[in-house]
């Protein structure tokens, strides 16, 4: 396998941590990652030390292991490995034909009235609810990053 750059390893590590954080069973330690991985992997066991290297960006797993990690976390292989979105067939019209909504992305960076209203509502919420909203937005943004229509 080709040697990855430090930036590639670190970017993979960030994507892996994001994928692990969004799962039903949150995996946050190298030991938990190794155990969960080994339940799905039929090759030589992965050690917590190897999982630690994946999580810290000092090493990347082989492509076949990345496939298992992607299946394990429910994310596209191309996104986990390269940061590229994968096409998801939603059965609906292509994104280019989808009807625009008032929440559609504004390309020029202008803040819309809806966004200002949303921000004012967010500021009125207690800290715990703001954190829930932040987590939800982070999850939805990650989902958009992983999949294209």
From TrEMBL:
Task: Report a single Gene Ontology molecular function.
Answer: DNA binding
Taxonomic superkingdom:
Bacteria
List where the protein spans the membrane. none
Which PROSITE patterns does the record match to this protein?
A: HTH_CROC1
All residue ranges annotated as the HTH cro/C1-type domain in the record: 46-80
Protein name (database record): Transcriptional regulator
State the species of origin: Ramlibacter ginsenosidimutans
